[in-house]
Amino acid sequence: MLERFNRLNYSKGMRLTDTLEKAFNDQLTLELTASHVYRQLAIELDLLDLSGMAEWMRAQAAEEVDHANLFIAHLDNRDNRPQIGAVPAPEVKVTSALDAFRIALEHEEKVSASIRALRKLADEEGDLDSRPLLDSFVTEQIEEEDTVRTIIGRLEIVGEDGSGILRIDRELGGREQQ
Ligand SMILES: [Fe+2]
After folding, report:
1. Residue 49 per-residue DSSP state
2. How crowded is residue 128: how many other Cβ atoms within 10 Å of its Cβ?
3. Distance (Å) from CA 11 to ligand 1 centroid
């Protein structure tokens, strides 16, 4: 009986299935893609002289690299093979702060959908060990989307008002408490 258990389960060790390993690699590549999108948005905002917002985007870019690293560590810890995929060039067209944050939200929604799909796949594959990590990402995405939606809401309130935009810029640059 024990021998059978060993053969069926224990011999697989802690590894993720090949299907799940591929999905994890796709996810970490998507996190790195998000990082590039945020970096490009930071550039666009700097070009608009909104340096506080640019700083906020750069901090987000760094956070996305942290996310990718968590997936890499999980694969590594479970004796799988992390593999970075192709990260496409970020295509963003920004003429206002509102554009930049709408693009950020669009991307976060894409990441959220991908995390949900990954969480469902983990269940289909019977993978219990990735649950805590994936559940923490589900929660993280709710926070990320809420934060960006709040900024969009405030930018919509101030509209074309330059002093309002500059005030939000200062706040996001961390130079003033919100
Ligand atoms: Fe992320």
Report:
1. T
2. 9
3. 33
pLDDT for 107-131, tens place per residue? 999 999 999 999 999 999 999 999 9
Distance 164 CA to ligand 1 centre (A): 29
Output the average pLDDT for the chain. Answer: 92
Q: Directed axis angle between helix 51-77 and helix 131-158, to 10°?
A: 170
Tokens at 97, concatenated: 């702060």
- List phi, psi (to 5°) of 77: -60, -25
Q: Give the separation between CA 149 and CA 138, rounded to whole angstroms.
A: 17
Task: Give me the torsion for CA of 100, 106, 109, 115, rounded to 10°.
Answer: -90
Other C-beta atoms lying within 10 Å of the C-beta of residue 1: 5
Angle, CA 114 vertex, CA 128 and CA 14 arms, to 5°? 25
